[in-house]
């Protein structure tokens, strides 16, 4: 799935179209009677008019603002900061954590709101400015510089010296708190941690925690029991030179991984609200204990207190329990700074009781799959390929003759996946985008924007599934008519990027950021580029972005057994978008002279659109990679299609995985053709 | 010049051979009478014998230790830390700053010494362990884990709780101080800043500051006067959103650059001891004022106090002057954290008077050359090529027939350079290394190690010159006999790395670390690699490593007009070493679709050893680059050789820059040959 660049860990699809596009629709719909300015006014607020103009999409936030301000008064808080994340610093959040959206009306995935007694401001990045202007009412000013420095400057201008600036420490990462503190440090404004969320106090119909609870993974998808994992992590604790006595797990996938449990508290993410404090001789699991069935209690040995017994504690008691633990002498708590919230961090004092690393040993251990995990994750991709092949085959047939919209295509692929064994729904909202829609960052179709697919436009589909055995994520871009030369060239260069990363050989321990440019190089050569990251980890029935694996600067070095997406792209504004995304696993490779080198083995198994490949641009090595890949698709997906009795799909697959003739710029072709020339000339001379 | 990897900024050549090599020599020299153990004992200390065995190279440090300990007592300091750097955190230091060497006897470039009342320990990295065992006496223990954590752990074990650990804040970077503070924080040991260096108190014959002083650069090598530069930097101060009132310059090249001055306080580096405090309306230059001639005083307008007058202040008064400045209200001092020492940093309080960036605006401005600087730096490389060509031609002639040692080769190239216009000596100690010596990191020959060059060994020469108009740095590896297949393959793959970086196209603003792997990729493919960085900036008569330009993770992004070395290599232990180093400048490049893209233009102009190039490994594009490069050498160096009347050198150059026939794996070759085949077949059919 499409990810943001520059180390960002957040990505949710944009639900609203760009204003430019809406304008075009309006003009068509209104048969030319309105100018663009008029059409434009219809979609975005205009607070400078009297009375202000508000589109129907704007949300009246006066009541919640008034109530929040009333909460702030007795606490003597001049400003209150409302981030867009949850207490686990999750990339995707549950509806009950959408506090920023509740307060502002703005539903974009990234933003920060700040409220004072007289003003309210929202900070969000350029992807969301149009959306914000459509959803905010005139209580809110929109701020476009999303740096914490900018928020701090605004705070300094609005909050008098000596004033308190309140925040919920559960919603701040260490880095966020540190950055605010640093920016406000010299200004005599006090950053005040308030562990009770003020928005929750005024959010009357805040969604409940789902009653249905946790499930354990079946043994057939597991190599390590939770007890094995606990012992593995404890051994990393005892070998840590700083000698931690406890490990605090805050990210939701950490607890889910450790106990081989899953939940469904967050859309598309099989997680459940939880923390874990793992000590060398105890295990404290913080959950909503009413959700833990008797069967699960037995599974977790919840009735004892030994070193392999899980003591269940109330989710909301994590702070007081951690405080009690830290109050003991001779304890040291290890945390991963990237996912621990400030509310827990601030309890671990004095400093000598704290041990930090960017990522907890659970996240770094989880990043390397065991044999079973690698095998079943590969298997999940075989079944997933069937669903995507079904979609592409169907579109090829029906687009030229019937009305298929982006939404219908998305529904179709979701339905295809749902028929595959062990499917647990999509792993994120399908991005199904035709023509100019595909050029929008984080687009996914809505009733309002859904475009009809035609033979005249390129179509991009980025989708994935959750399966009991694995999470998938794949993007294909296709054209059912005649692509332009520019489209073919851009597509081929994106593909070259994908191949160049996939086939590169590198020492074990190389960071993804050091090889990421191979995904861009063929584009750079002709002055093209793309504005997002090049890949993210995936795992076994987890979030579709499984950090810290990937190609971003804060990702950990590659070792054998890590799964990552590889997804270069190219986007031409108001015209088309191309992305090719495959999942690949790092595998050891034999080299002529050295040891401990890796390469990638692609596990996504769906052919690329042949029509869009200009083979004259490919090197012989790239062509060879492509043919090997196609041969692998036949070898792995063929039997699965047979097994599922999908003959038409098999024919389609075989047709689309015909080997390319090696007409590329090959050393071997060259030398053989040179030999041929020599032969022919020799022949000629004889004649 | 060869640089260390992983963001390290320090590199000086190892003066001592590895023990393995010395052992071989001993065995030969002693005609087999001694076993290797005995031979080994002769070169390294053995403190476990009674009495301890000390080689003749070991230095008796008892006196200086006793005197230092006496200095520590009245200050109540239980341990004293002695780093290897100077007050400007320079990469190379003057003899008078070699405090670690004075105290320990160990002369390696990297290390930290710590002294308590009863113990003394030296930390240095693996390059230097053998050297340390040869130079240390038994007062010293050698510690091999060079992390600050390791030093801190040792300190905690040796210093009682509540004890003071002293350090000279002038010799600590902010980061060093922070790391020590963090590691000691929880242990109740106090890190105590002592601004008077205790080693200096006991170093009776400490070298003086050279009496000869500063010189100004001639106008012909300048586009910007120092007044232009001051105004340029002030404009960066006024546009900085944090509104600094002053900029503190600590790195020696910052002051040298700003005033277009040079000195010679540090071997190979045209610097002079200095700091600058540049405010919006004053300029304070801290130097040894007795070294500033009347002419220079006039040049610097040192008799006035206006905004373009340089007020000369004593070098040793920098702390008190900075303190006075900071004591004023409404001042804010901007520092670059990478080169500011803790002694100055600790004065800038409270925090709101401090503004930091990794590098000062002088370093980031200096990194981009103006038109004149770019032109003259290119010109210096033309003359420098003449000297290196003279060396290679001479070696080719004499090595097969005469006794030429590594030392003599180094002297020869230094002499050749000295004859070139505006030469100011070598830019670092020449690395001249034959056979196994070239596989040693940071080797440069001594009388003891200098090997005779033969037709049976590869030879690596890494050398550079200081010229009034520019600093050069180039490495060539040659073979005068018959290289092995492995040597040819490794050389060719190193060359491919050099070419791949050189010809890559990338967006302006791309960090070097993101493209660095192109220098390694051809090696990685066959399981080879190298253990040092891939390049560093160079400039106009400055240090040979001109940071922050280069390919390391802490280097700034590339913009047009930056000069960097590109220097992949390969080293086979006890056998041979290969490095190919060229300087290149980033230049704008026209691309098919985009704008603001860059590529490299190589400015080093010396052909590579043809015998070592396996053209069958090169792609057509690599071959084309090579031929273009050779054509450029002919075009630029040819006329210079003519001008200097060097006909034999010109013939040699022409012979060694013959175009290669494009037998590589070329797309164009392929398509043309395929066309040929088609034609010939057509012809054939007709016949």
UniProtKB/TrEMBL annotation, chains A, B:
Main subcellular location: membrane
Reactions catalysed: Release of any N-terminal amino acid, including proline, that is linked to proline, even from a dipeptide or tripeptide
Biological process per Gene Ontology, one example term: proteolysis
Domain Peptidase M24 C-terminal: 596-660
A Pfam entry, by short name: Peptidase_M24_C
Glycoprotein keyword on record: yes
EC number: 3.4.11.9
Alphabetically ordered keywords of this record: Aminopeptidase, Cell membrane, Glycoprotein, GPI-anchor, Hydrolase, Lipoprotein, Membrane, Metal-binding, Protease, Signal, Zinc
GO cellular component: plasma membrane; side of membrane
Domain (Creatinase N-terminal) ranges: 65-185
Membrane topology: Lipid-anchor; GPI-anchor
Compartments where located: Cell membrane
Superkingdom in the source lineage: Eukaryota
Domain Peptidase M24: 376-585
InterPro entries in alphabetical order: Creatin/AminoP/Spt16_N (IPR029149), Creatinase/aminopeptidase-like (IPR036005), Creatinase_N (IPR000587), Pept_M24 (IPR000994), Pept_M24B (IPR033740), Peptidase_M24_C (IPR032416), X-Pro_aminopeptidase_P (IPR050422)
Co-factor requirement: Zn(2+)
The UniProt record lists the keyword NADP: no
GO molecular function: metal ion binding; metalloaminopeptidase activity
Assembly, per entry: Homotrimer.
Family note: Belongs to the peptidase M24B family.
Function: Membrane-bound metalloprotease which catalyzes the removal of a penultimate prolyl residue from the N-termini of peptides, such as Arg-Pro-Pro. May play a role in the metabolism of the vasodilator bradykinin.
Stated name of the protein: Xaa-Pro aminopeptidase 2
């Amino acid at each position: 799935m499409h990810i943001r660049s520059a180390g960002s860990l957040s990505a949710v699809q944009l639900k609203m179209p760009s204003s430019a596009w809406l304008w075009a629709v309006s003009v068509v719909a209104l048969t030319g009677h309105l100018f663009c300015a008029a059409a434009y006014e219809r979609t975005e607020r205009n607070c400078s008019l009297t009375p202000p103009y508000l589109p129907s999409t704007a949300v009246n936030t006066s009541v919640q603002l008034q109530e929040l301000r009333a909460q702030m008064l007795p606490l003597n808080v001049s400003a209150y900061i409302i981030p867009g994340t949850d207490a686990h610093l999750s990339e995707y959040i549950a509806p009950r954590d959408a506090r920023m959206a509740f307060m502002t009306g703005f539903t974009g995935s990234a933003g920060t709101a700040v409220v004072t007694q007289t003003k309210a401001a929202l900070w969000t990045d350029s992807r969301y400015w149009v959306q914000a202007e459509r959803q905010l009412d005139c209580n809110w000013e929109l701020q476009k510089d999303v740096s914490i420095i900018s928020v701090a400057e605004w705070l300094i201008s609005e909050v008098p010296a000596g004033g308190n600036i309140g925040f919920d420490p559960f919603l701040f990462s260490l880095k966020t708190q540190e950055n605010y503190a640093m920016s406000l440090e010299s200004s005599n404004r006090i950053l005040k941690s308030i562990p009770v969320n003020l928005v929750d106090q005024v959010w009357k119909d805040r969604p409940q925690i789902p009653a249905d609870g946790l499930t354990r993974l079946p043994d057939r998808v597991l190599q390590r029991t939770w007890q094995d994992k606990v012992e593995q992590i404890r051994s990393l604790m005892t070998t840590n030179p700083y000698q931690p006595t406890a490990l605090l797990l805050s990210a939701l996938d950490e607890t889910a991984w450790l106990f081989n449990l899953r939940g469904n508290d967050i859309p598309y993410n099989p997680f459940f609200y939880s923390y874990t404090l793992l000590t060398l001789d105890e295990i404290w699991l913080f959950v909503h204990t009413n959700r833990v069935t008797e069967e699960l209690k037995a599974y977790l040995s919840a009735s004892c207190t030994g070193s392999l017994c899980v003591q269940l504690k109330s989710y909301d008691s994590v702070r007081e329990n951690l405080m009690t633990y830290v109050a003991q002498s001779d304890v040291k708590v290890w945390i991963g700074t990237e996912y621990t919230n400030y509310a827990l961090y601030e309890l671990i004092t004095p400093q000598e009781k704290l041990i930090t690393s960017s990522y907890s040993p659970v996240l770094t251990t989880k990043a390397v799959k065991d044999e079973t995990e690698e095998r079943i994750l590969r298997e999940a991709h075989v079944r997933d390929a069937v669903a995507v092949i079904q979609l592409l085959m169907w579109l090829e047939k029906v687009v030229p003759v019937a009305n298929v919209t982006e939404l219908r295509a998305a529904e179709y692929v979701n339905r295809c996946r749902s028929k595959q064994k062990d499917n647990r729904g999509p792993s994120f909202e399908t991005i199904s985008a035709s023509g100019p829609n595909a050029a929008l960052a984080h687009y996914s179709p809505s009733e309002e924007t859904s475009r009809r697919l035609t033979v005249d436009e390129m179509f991009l589909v980025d989708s994935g599934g959750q399966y009991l055995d694995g999470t998938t994520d794949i993007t294909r871009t296709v054209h059912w008519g005649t692509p332009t030369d520019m489209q073919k060239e851009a597509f081929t260069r994106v593909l070259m990027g994908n191949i160049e990363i996939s086939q590169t050989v590198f020492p074990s321990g190389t960071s993804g950021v050091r090889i990421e440019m191979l995904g861009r190089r063929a584009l750079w050569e002709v002055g093209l580029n793309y504005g997002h990251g090049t890949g993210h980890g995936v795992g076994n029935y987890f979030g579709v972005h499984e950090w810290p694996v990937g190609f971003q600067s804060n990702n950990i070095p590659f070792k054998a057994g890590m799964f990552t997406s590889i997804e270069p792209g190219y986007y031409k504004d108001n015209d088309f978008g191309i992305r090719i995304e495959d999942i690949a696993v790092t595998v050891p490779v034999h080299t002529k002279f050295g040891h401990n080198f890796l390469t990638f083995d692609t596990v996504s198994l769906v052919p690329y659109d042949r029509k869009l490949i200009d083979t004259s641009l490919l090197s012989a090595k790239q062509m060879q990679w492509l043919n090997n890949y196609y041969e692998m698709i036949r070898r792995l997906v063929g039997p699965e299609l047979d097994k599922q009795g999908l003959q038409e799909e098999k024919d389609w697959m075989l047709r689309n995985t015909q080997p390319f003739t090696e007409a590329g710029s090959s050393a071997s072709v060259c030398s053989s053709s040179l030999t041929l020339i020599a032969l022919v000339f020799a022949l000629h001379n004889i004649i």
